[in-house]
Amino acid sequence: MSTVDLHTLTGAYALHALSDDERGEFERHAADCEACTQEALELSETAARLGLAVSAASPAALKSKVMRRITTVRQDSPRVVPLTRPPGSGSRSRRLSRWALAACVAGVAAFGGTTVWQYDRAQDANEQARQSEQRTDAIASVLAASDARTKSAELADGARGTVVVSKSRDEAVFIAAGMAAPPSGKVYQLWFNDAGTMRSAGLMDSHRTAEAVLLEGAVDEASGMGITVEPAGGSAEPTSDPIALMTFPA
Amino acid sequence: MKEAVHIGKNPSAEPDLQELMGSVALGDQQAFAGLYDVVAGPVIGVVRGVLRDQAQSEEVAQEVLVEVWRSAARYRSERGSVINWVLTLAHQRAVDRVRSVEASAAREHRAALLDHAPEYDEVTEQVEARLEREQVRRCLRTLTELQRQSVTLAYYRGMTYREVAESLALPLGTVKTRLRDGLIRMRDCLGVTA
């Protein structure tokens, strides 16, 4: 499809009226086309207004069902994974089209904030599950690496932190146990310690007190890691004193 | 230039919704109950319109609302309004269900739909039934007949543009541009910004 043709797909895209292949093609085009992106966003907001216009009565039974279910549903956090795999993620991921996969990879690559697709396929739960699975695999790979070295330390208030570093993979995993939930509106942020300079290594899930997190980025020359309490969403550099500092195992 | 109008409380309610979403993302169930009250009606309306089946609609609406809870942390306000995020999810899930190979019953139903005359008038009737939907109704009327038919079949029936083309016996390229032109006209009429 030509570029001009792709640009005229903004309307069909916003209305979910494209096939999966076309959708992928459009999204790849739009990644480099600011005008298309902006137009697709506006038309998507417009489509939402069409949706608001057909609002229907909500059965009371549905609300109780949903409210009951959410008490058992673990919330996603963009940068961390639970220790167990999401159920059924394996079979689901096999059904993804190659375009969906491409969009997924693009979504991951664009995680720094360059993607503007609130609603792109990479954010769909199925793919999130697949990404989670990949990260779970990455964690497992670090833990299972032949050169994995482990070090544990007592953190504040009886919590325990364990860091596992694999030099060959240049990756590290932090495993927390018994950490208190961060204050409301705050998150725990992890940092690599590069000779006194803190480099962000991602966020921890606010809702779990025990989890394994693959530190984002390469270990490189980092000598250790730290944890700080940051505003929700994390910070570019620490805004408070670390609540814990650990040196990496030699 | 046409006068921009807004539907009911939606645009002014958005800051509250964003605040609610922030709390929901942090696991606040009470905040989710508040968000639910605002979005459940539109979610059910959108899903039911596309699926045309009570039981399936409720099932999909339930999945969508639980997914809102589960993935709340991934909402980014700079990429659109909360209601757009939720309704995009709802519409996408409904469309996925309709197009899914597993939902053979739905597929047969869909084939039956395509055999019949377009049902956009029925949708338009539903839209007309509610006073607060006046703006959307008024704006839909500013569209050409082909634009209006294309947009309503795609959105309210969850058809692909190929199906719309087939249904209205129009060339594919024509439907593509009608969908875009129609939505652009709606955007300008409703005063939508993003």
Automatic annotation (TrEMBL), chain A:
<feature type="domain" description="Anti-sigma-K factor RskA N-terminal">
    <location>
        <begin position="6"/>
        <end position="40"/>
    </location>
</feature>
<dbReference type="GO" id="GO:0016989">
    <property type="term" value="F:sigma factor antagonist activity"/>
</dbReference>
<dbReference type="GO" id="GO:0006417">
    <property type="term" value="P:regulation of translation"/>
</dbReference>
<keyword id="KW-0812">Transmembrane</keyword>
<keyword id="KW-1133">Transmembrane helix</keyword>
<dbReference type="GO" id="GO:0005886">
    <property type="term" value="C:plasma membrane"/>
</dbReference>
<dbReference type="InterPro" id="IPR018764">
    <property type="entry name" value="RskA_C"/>
</dbReference>
<keyword id="KW-0805">Transcription regulation</keyword>
<protein>
    <recommendedName>
        <fullName>Regulator of SigK</fullName>
    </recommendedName>
</protein>
<dbReference type="Pfam" id="PF22618">
    <property type="entry name" value="RskA_N"/>
</dbReference>
<keyword id="KW-0472">Membrane</keyword>
<keyword id="KW-1003">Cell membrane</keyword>
<feature type="domain" description="Anti-sigma K factor RskA C-terminal">
    <location>
        <begin position="101"/>
        <end position="243"/>
    </location>
</feature>
<keyword id="KW-0804">Transcription</keyword>
<dbReference type="InterPro" id="IPR041916">
    <property type="entry name" value="Anti_sigma_zinc_sf"/>
</dbReference>
<dbReference type="Pfam" id="PF10099">
    <property type="entry name" value="RskA_C"/>
</dbReference>
<dbReference type="InterPro" id="IPR053877">
    <property type="entry name" value="RskA_N"/>
</dbReference>
<dbReference type="InterPro" id="IPR051474">
    <property type="entry name" value="Anti-sigma-K/W_factor"/>
</dbReference>
TrEMBL record, chain B:
<dbReference type="GO" id="GO:0003677">
    <property type="term" value="F:DNA binding"/>
</dbReference>
<dbReference type="InterPro" id="IPR013324">
    <property type="entry name" value="RNA_pol_sigma_r3/r4-like"/>
</dbReference>
<dbReference type="InterPro" id="IPR039425">
    <property type="entry name" value="RNA_pol_sigma-70-like"/>
</dbReference>
<keyword id="KW-0731">Sigma factor</keyword>
<dbReference type="InterPro" id="IPR013249">
    <property type="entry name" value="RNA_pol_sigma70_r4_t2"/>
</dbReference>
<dbReference type="GO" id="GO:0016987">
    <property type="term" value="F:sigma factor activity"/>
</dbReference>
<protein>
    <submittedName>
        <fullName>RNA polymerase subunit sigma</fullName>
    </submittedName>
</protein>
<dbReference type="GO" id="GO:0006352">
    <property type="term" value="P:DNA-templated transcription initiation"/>
</dbReference>
<keyword id="KW-0804">Transcription</keyword>
<dbReference type="Pfam" id="PF08281">
    <property type="entry name" value="Sigma70_r4_2"/>
</dbReference>
<comment type="similarity">
    <text>Belongs to the sigma-70 factor family. ECF subfamily.</text>
</comment>
<dbReference type="InterPro" id="IPR014284">
    <property type="entry name" value="RNA_pol_sigma-70_dom"/>
</dbReference>
<dbReference type="InterPro" id="IPR036388">
    <property type="entry name" value="WH-like_DNA-bd_sf"/>
</dbReference>
<dbReference type="InterPro" id="IPR007627">
    <property type="entry name" value="RNA_pol_sigma70_r2"/>
</dbReference>
<dbReference type="Pfam" id="PF04542">
    <property type="entry name" value="Sigma70_r2"/>
</dbReference>
<keyword id="KW-0805">Transcription regulation</keyword>
<feature type="domain" description="RNA polymerase sigma factor 70 region 4 type 2">
    <location>
        <begin position="133"/>
        <end position="185"/>
    </location>
</feature>
<feature type="domain" description="RNA polymerase sigma-70 region 2">
    <location>
        <begin position="36"/>
        <end position="100"/>
    </location>
</feature>
<dbReference type="InterPro" id="IPR013325">
    <property type="entry name" value="RNA_pol_sigma_r2"/>
</dbReference>
